[in-house]
Amino acid sequence: ACRLPGYASHQVGVAEELTNVISDCWFQTLNAWKFPGGLSELGENIATAVREVQEETGVCSEFLSLLSVRQQHDQPGAFGASDLYLICRLRPLTYSIDFCTEECLRCDWLPIAELARTEETTPITSRVARLLLYGLERGWGAVDLPMETLPAVHSGRFYQLYHRGLPLA
Amino acid sequence: ACRLPGYASHQVGVAEELTNVISDCWFQTLNAWKFPGGLSELGENIATAVREVQEETGVCSEFLSLLSVRQQHDQPGAFGASDLYLICRLRPLTYSIDFCTEECLRCDWLPIAELARTEETTPITSRVARLLLYGLERGWGAVDLPMETLPAVHSGRFYQLYHRGLPLA
């Protein structure tokens, strides 16, 4: 279940939030809670999030929305290229945890409020936990970027587009 | 000014909206208005948008916010990898147009309402024009994903993070 990317310049990794309670990992190098996530494989899309959650935690889930985009440059392991990470909100379909011991030391469901409060985490995890708390209080429409599929006129292919919700035309 | 990417798996192209009026191109293959944009070079970040607008249109601008993320798979020219495109909102600093004739046949400032209405465009351009109209009517806070810089705890490096605005902590 633990893997190296076969091919990447801009890596698209995906982390996930699970509604109400959150599946997290306690990493050896950090001693910090963070969301499960990892790199897309070639041709993979946002479904990466669902696969990575299952591989790292054993939890099955489905995609709900995009929450945030993270960009970092000159990251170790990114082969000198910049790193683009999509942070998604997922709905859990199962709850029992069977985690990848090569990737993390602990894995558990945490209340979002606890994750937003703890100092045993990274600045970005903390920020996303606050974003989730805000969504819980104000409705997910305040934080979600829904996914829509639109046609590419010249090729007959389709795009996935994420942006703030619009009122119906 | 016209270029092929030297290295790419996930391409990060960037298109832009310019507040109130929009700089657009009429492409030979499409006969359609679309936003200027192109591929990031290695190590480049969101500043790609500013560079590409200047190369394609001659207009100088500065970054304001991220508006949308587009993902497409198996795109021609993407070397078999999926394609990730960040759509940004920019503020123009200059207005006179000097466009790249290898990349487009026409280039002009269009009122956003006209771009949202015309059929001589692509579905995604049309959609982003509607998103901009909504931002003009309701305030940019309704559509913007502001950029913030957060520290990476383990490396001393920094991330750029984009998500819906949060109330002050």
Automatic annotation (TrEMBL), chains A, B:
Subunit structure: Monomer and homodimer.
Compartments, record wording: Cytoplasm; Nucleus; Mitochondrion
Gene Ontology annotations for the cellular component aspect, listed alphabetically: mitochondrion; nucleus
Keyword list, A-Z: Cytoplasm, Hydrolase, Mitochondrion, Nucleus
Record bears the keyword Nucleotide-binding: no
GO molecular function: ADP-ribose diphosphatase activity; NAD binding; NADH pyrophosphatase activity
Family, per entry: Belongs to the Nudix hydrolase family.
Nudix hydrolase domain residues: 1-137
Protein name according to UniProt: Nucleoside diphosphate-linked moiety X motif 6
Species name: Gadus morhua (Atlantic cod)
Enzyme class at the top of the EC tree: hydrolase
Region of the whole protein represented: 144 to 312 of 312
EC id: 3.6.1.-
Role description: May contribute to the regulation of cell proliferation.
Gene: NUDT6
